[in-house]
Amino acid sequence: MDQVPPVTRGRQVRSLPLPHRCNNPRNPACAHCGTVIIPSPAAIMPLEDTPSISVGSWTIESRKRPILDTPALSQWESEHLPGLGALPEMIFGGNYVRIRCDLDESKHWDIEFNALDALREVPTEDSGVRVSCASDWLRSKHRRCDGAPPQIAKQYDWTYTTRYRGTVTGCPLVADTTAELPLAMLAKPDPILFFDDMVLYEDELGDNGASMYSCKVRVMPERLLLLARFFLRVDDVLLRVQDTRLYVEFAQNRVVREWKRYEADYNEVFKRHRGGVPPHRDLRALLRDSNWVVDHLPIVERTCETIQL
């Protein structure tokens, strides 16, 4: 791929931003700031938003559609996820974020984040997590068939915890324990060319908390950052966040993927911060905010991978 020539100013050498373009006329760039307009300013039926932008050899696209209806849920349960036992209450099965690199006509690499592949990585065995009213929860999971003794319904991870880090097509990323996200580069006040965020699936765990997988991406002239987050709150029991961050430097065709797991006992976090929250703030409301929670949980696991395309 042709590289953008460097610009020399004294001793400082830097690369010019790669050219970019909007790919979907329904999501044009703002005439004032250049950011792709999301959601589309034009009404579309059936409801669907598919913005896309290309920067150099990279293309970033996303799609948003409504939650799966009952027939689609039944099909997913029987054909795509038969071992899961039960599906989350809300699945946005048509949503995705896709990042693609076309190095030449024969060499491509992409990574996609979607609900189906995320749910395929939910364990099909009991998670071991119990709600605070465990006996009531267990009774709700019993079933009786034609006078037979009650049995526990099919075992599965009812918290829908997934270690999903994206679906890669092409060369796999390679583990690199020394790699770090370039925080200094990400802290630059670069203009945002493209930003989108979406939920892939969500469940309220029978009014005992929340389980949600979401994804957001922002594209700047020289780089992008994607955050895919699984957030779990089991009231009075557990708080868990699993973050996947994907960083791409466009001119270098370098990808860094970092995954972190944060976890702590719900009541321990509540007790630790009960006296430190201002009077006008509700601590239990803060515990429903994944951004607040992740800042107050310890990191219990981290991996990092890279690839040079």
From TrEMBL:
Stretches that traverse the bilayer: none
GO cellular component: cytosol
Gene: KNAG0F03450
Sequence similarity: Belongs to the TIP41 family.
Name this protein carries in UniProt: Type 2A phosphatase activator TIP41
Originating organism: Huiozyma naganishii (strain ATCC MYA-139 / BCRC 22969 / CBS 8797 / KCTC 17520 / NBRC 10181 / NCYC 3082 / Yp74L-3)
Gene Ontology BP annotations: negative regulation of TORC1 signaling; TOR signaling
